Amino acid sequence: MQLLQLFQRVPRFLRSFYFLTGAGFLVWMVLFDANDLLKQYDMYAKWRELQAEKEYYLNNIEIVKKDRAELLSSPELLEKFAREKYIMKRPGEDVFILVPQQEE
Fold first, then answer.
1. Domains in the chain: boundaries
2. CA 53, 58, 59, 62: dihedral to nearest 10 degrees?
3. Which of 26, 41, 50, 88 could form a disulfide with 82 if both were Cys (CB 3.0 to 4.6 A apart)?
4. Can you tell me where the transmembrane regions are (predicted)?
5. Do 95 and 89 form a contact (C-beta atoms < 8 A)?
6. DSSP notation for 3-59
7. pLDDT tier, 1 (very low <50, low <70, confident <90, very high otherwise)
8. Could you give the angle at the alpha carbon of 42 between the alpha carbons of 37 and 44, nearest 5°?
9. What CA–CA distance (Å, rounded) separates 59 from 94?
10. Hey, is 63 helix, strand or coil?
């Protein structure tokens, strides 16, 4: 008897089939679906991280392009770069590499 009275106290639109079906659908989509809110948030965070990486790499590409153009424009700079970075030498030259001693 009390359950019936409690049920009748609930407004009529909240007891309708369409409202209950819609509420069930929303609960399913928010909590149980393959693309629920938590997964959407994770995907958004990953997207933001990838956008930051994209900006980083685009900036580095511009720096490398500028360095490359500078190196290819001058044979002296190209030779200096090759000697310092790749330890290249001319025939008949001796190259001594000094490595700092590591502390124990």
1. 1-33, 34-88
2. 160
3. 88
4. 16-38
5. yes
6. HHHHHHHS-GGGGSHHHHHHHHHHHIIIIISTT-HHHHHHHHHHHHHHHHHHHHHHH
7. low
8. 95
9. 38
10. helix
Inter-residue contact 82 to 92 (CB < 8 Å) = no
Mean pLDDT taken over the chain: 87
Contacts of 77 (CB under 8 A, 6+ apart): 70, 71
Backbone angles phi, psi at 25, to 5 degrees: -65, -45
**What pLDDT sits at residue 43?**
94
Paired tokens of 100: 């700092």
Read off the pLDDT of residues 16-63 as tens digits, 9 standing for 90 and up.
Answer: 899 999 999 988 888 888 888 889 899 999 999 999 999 999 999 999
Sign of the alpha-carbon dihedral angle for 11, 15, 18, 23: positive
What is the rounded average pLDDT of the residues 60-72?
90
Q: What pLDDT, on the 0 to 100 scale, is given for residue 4?
A: 78
